[in-house]
Amino acid sequence: MSPLNLLRLATRGTVIATALWLAACKTTPPPPPPAPVVAKKPKGLFEWTGLGKDITFIRINVDEQKAYLYNGEEQLGWTYVATGITSFPTPTGEFKVLEKISDKVSNLYGKGYDAEGKLVNSDFKQGRDLLPPGGRFEAAKMTYFMRLTGDGVGMHIGPIPRPGKRASHGCIRLPSKFAGTMFKHTAIGTPVKIEGSGPDYKTYLKEAAEKSKANAAKKKAEEAAAAAAAATSLAPGDPNGPATLPAAPASPTGSTPPTAAPTEEIKPAVPASQAVPASPSNPTGN
């Protein structure tokens, strides 16, 4: 092979090697990022995957209005709840399940009706709220009740009208189709942590006591005012009341008005010097 051919082969090999080296050094562009997945709204009020497992810890977030259920570190599910509204908040802090009653009827919470039977308070609490005069209290059913505090705050079946929104007067409402499952798998002594915007339990007790005191004072003032009004008023027909004169009968149209009764003429006294002695024909002496 001539030197010229050898040179050509060497040049061609160099070109091929250089091309291969450049191809190896070229950076592969990263794949495009995946399209964002739109989060789907949960279906229903709860999710439960803890078949055969007990709940050993419950975390309730009053801002989210959700309870998260755990067995150790494993989350078994979650559920919407309805905790206390801003004016009647659910206390925050760390609690335990103190008592379980499947068919409890409250002696504190219920519904308040006025004297005409109209519902005026769907979350009435004895000692904290006031009934209108003549009203009545109807105790609430608190099925699958799990007590958290000595003054009656607990978890139980209750309406959740707007999931994610507060709705109760302090208790923690659970969906009717899931409360039984929670009740069955939660033992007395199970820790419950309530977190989010709201007073701690000490502040909650202080505010509840102040509200009860104010309501008691208001009720006492109303009762005193009612008693004072009753003491100064007379029943219809009471003889001590003002006399009512019968109305004069109306004259028939076109008739002659009644003649006024004659009045007695009063004569001036006659001086003693001019007095006429009494006689049988003049008994008065005048």
Helix content: 10-25%
Mean pLDDT: 81
Low-confidence stretches: none
The secondary structure category is: alpha+beta
Radius of gyration: 47 Å
Main sheet: strand order: 1-4-3-2-11-5
Report the portion of residues in β strands: 15-25%
Helix segment tally? 3
List the helices and strands and how they pair.
Blueprint (H helix, E strand, L loop, with lengths): L2 H23 L20 E3 L8 E5 L4 E6 L2 E7 L12 E4 L2 E15 L5 E7 L10 E12 L6 E4 L14 E3 L4 H7 L5 E5 L5 H32 L54
Parallel strand pairs: 2-11, 9-10
Antiparallel strand pairs: 1-4, 2-3, 3-4, 5-11, 6-7, 6-8, 8-9
Q: What does this protein structure show overall?
A:
The chain is 22% helix and 25% strand. The chain is built from 3 helices and 11 strands, in the order αββββββββββαβα. It is α+β, with helices and mostly antiparallel strands and 286 residues long. It is elongated, with a radius of gyration of 47 Å. β6 (99-113) and β7 form a beta hairpin. The model has no long low-confidence stretch (mean pLDDT 81).
In short:
The chain is an alpha+beta fold and 286 residues long.
Characteristic key phrases:
286 residues, 22% helix, 3 helices, five-stranded mixed sheet, alpha+beta
